[in-house]
């Protein structure tokens, strides 16, 4: 549906548009969490792929000059073998 179909009171002059690249995105929006049980079900290749994707996402968010807080667990080291552990 177009904006006009969703809200017929909108006109081209009253409609606002925010490009997707200007919308607020946090690391939390792209971070994927696994429970311990889910993590243990993953094969080693899946764990490595997860690590690679999370490191890439972290690097991309960091390259934008945005701080990634420790409350998201992204920069807090986790014990080896724990869910979400990023091994090198």
From TrEMBL:
Q: What is the top-level taxon of the source organism?
A: Eukaryota
Residue intervals passing through the bilayer: none
Matching entries from Pfam families are given as:
KRAB
Tell me the GO BP annotations in alphabetical order. regulation of DNA-templated transcription
Q: Where is this region: Disordered?
A: 69-88
Q: Where is the KRAB domain?
A: 25-88
Q: What is this protein called?
A: KRAB domain-containing protein
């Amino acid at each position: 549906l177009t904006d006009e179909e969703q809200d017929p009171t909108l006109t081209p002059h009253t409609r606002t548009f925010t490009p997707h690249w200007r919308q607020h995105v946090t690391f939390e929006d792209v971070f994927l969490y696994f429970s311990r049980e889910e993590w243990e079900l993953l094969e080693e290749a899946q764990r490595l792929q997860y690590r690679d994707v999370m490191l890439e996402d972290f690097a991309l968010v960091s390259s934008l000059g945005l701080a990634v807080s420790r409350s998201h667990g992204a920069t807090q080291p986790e014990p080896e073998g724990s869910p979400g552990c990023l091994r090198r």
